[in-house]
Amino acid sequence: PAQQRLPRTLTRDLNHHDGQTVRLQGFVHARRDLGGVQFVVLRDVSGVTQCVGKGLNLPLAESSVEVTGTVKAHPKAPGGFEVQISEFRVISAAVEASPVEIPKMEWNVNPETMLDYRVVTVRGLKERAALKVQAELVAAFRDHLMTEGFTEISTPKIVSAGAEGGANLFPIDYFGQGAYLAQSPQLYKQIMVGVFERVFEVAPVYRAEEHATSRHLNEYLSLDVEMGFIEDEEDVMSLENRLLASIMTRLKATSQAEFDLLGATIPDVPAHIPRISLFDARALVTEKYGHQVGGKDLDPEAERLLCQHYAETEGSDFVFVTKYPRAARPFYAHPDSNADGSLSSEITRGFDLLFRGIEITSGGQRIHDHAMLMDSIAAYKLNPESLSGYTEVFKYGMPPHGGFAIGAERLTAKLLGISNVRYARAFPRDRHRLTP
Ligand code: AMO
Fold it and tell me: Where along the chain is L-aspartate bound (predicted)?
């Protein structure tokens, strides 16, 4: 009966049980049978520990098992303790050898194979550490925003129109009617500002981008924020500045072990993240590094160089790029002011945030005036009919508002020095991958 059993101990708590009998549960991470003695490295949610026994019939690696035994200090064992097994029970035996030996995985040899077998490779210590850090980061995102009076919302992922412009929408058949997977909660989070004033959402979004790069997923976790009654986009940037500082403080308290395992450092967030206009940023990378920037935005190399500049000159891993031209922003971006106070037709109050060489956020102030919004929709040659479910609310007193979205996998990958955003998602969807 359960009440007579020892309570379960986690491997990370063995230091509190030196010399005592404990009961552990977990997975066979590694195993070695030397004939007379058997070694089992047991992996549970908190870490790994070496267990040693005699006359054991060892199951295949990855079987789930229960070990009862005595804790002995053992300086050479992982964690500094070893468990001398008195009772060994197989809870659920692996019926086949794992296609990949979890402790010996080398992603650089064949990443596609590792993703093919993701259901087991994701159990790896480094693989799960990345997901654990992301979970902490999301919890910190929620906690901080709630302390600033934000309310969590949940908006539809099946939608009738795109939010961000462009052609990267996944069409779906909605009972014979055309629909799409949401590429962003943008329009709905703005509507919800009319309800709660300050809102956030943590949810996947979908982008039908055909290119396979280290920074693009077709399904990613979007950390969205929207805030009403702002002065301008400066309020939004300072909110994101505080939010990131709070997230990093939390990670220092909860996730140092995962960062150590991955050889990564938690950045300090400056009290005032440097800002530079897109125009000046393009000039800077050309003048300082001789890099000609193509297109209307920054290209990946320009993002890298700009971050290098701010890391070297200001010791900041972060930089806001501000005042994006209308040509590089969606229809909802609020125009910037000209020197004489009139509104610019060229420049918006949109910004990006770069972190360690890559864009992790887009944001800005949005148009809240109904007439201005309708004009913008016409100027972008969009169909006002298809956006009427959104534009309607702007007839009813929408306050000045703005917000941003952080790509959770990009932030996680850059925090941990992971080379590809795919490894910052448990089951990535990319151009060629729909399983597992
Ligand atoms: P944007 O389209 O720039 O802006 O997306 C915001 C952030 O999401 C991340 N991101 C991606 N991550 C992985 N794979 C992708 N394919 C991908 N595309 C984007 C990036 C990016 O900075 N509605 C606006 C946000 C806002 O203004 O509030 C938007 O969606 O980190």
Answer: 164, 207, 362, 366
